Amino acid sequence: MLKVEPIPAFQDNYIWAIHDGHSAAIVDPGEAAPVERFLAERGLALGAIVITHHHGDHQGGVADLLAAHPNGPDGAPMPVVGPAGERIGGRTQAVREGDTVALRHPALTLRVLDVPGHTAGHVAFVADKGETDGPALFCGDTMFASGCGRLFEGTPAQMLDSLDKFAALPGETRVYCAHEYTRSNVKFARAVEPANAALAAWSARVDALREAGEPTLPTTVAHERAVNPFLRSREPSVRQAVQAQGGSTADDASAFGALRAWKDSFR
Fold this sequence. Notes:
The chain has nine helices and 14 strands. The strands form three sheets. The protein has a six-stranded mixed sheet, with helices on one face. The chain has a six-stranded mixed sheet with strand order 7-8-9-10-13-14. 33% of the residues lie in helices and 24% in strands. By secondary structure, the protein is an alpha/beta fold. It has a single domain (3-265), classed as 4-Layer Sandwich (Metallo-beta-lactamase, Chain A), CATH 3.60.15.10.
């Protein structure tokens, strides 16, 4: 069974390491130094690099990692998997929705989803087979715990469609997103749905975790369906809150866009 561990980076990034005790696939290494420390501390070989989108805090460490580890444990060139629609330095396999990634070190199969919105070519990776003790979603900056990414390159309709893909995954799917934004996201979510009991309980749990210095991730798809306003943008309670802010709810994309715009200016 593979283990998934966070590697903190920058101020609030999480680089994810998926490993079998011998080799690790590293997801979104924005910088190399924390990855190198993690590998050395656990005695792991770098086996693959997986990238969700082109932003520097997700691929900025690739060049240095490749310089130090040009080959994988089997001597073949280091696999670097990334979205076909974006420029990813060192990429050896360009992927899009419908593709399957078969890693060898560690042995792991990932299914690719196209999830534009945060960036135009953003992809997510799903481990369906339970190699990671149940299904897992590596979603980059498309979805966060109780939130979603800013719309830097995509439209509200695109992001809503991307999040719908996540919401359709099995509820037990663990969600591994790339930033520790949960406290601020929960603050906004509670402004949107103050009567959401599940959200109130989650807020207390988040505070406890952060006070203890623990990550709030992973969550699960079922959990996000219950507390994430961006997965709940069709709910009457969310629509009413958007309308109270003067936002349009004429259609699903308009309501989602108004919700995202509210979050952008929320303090």
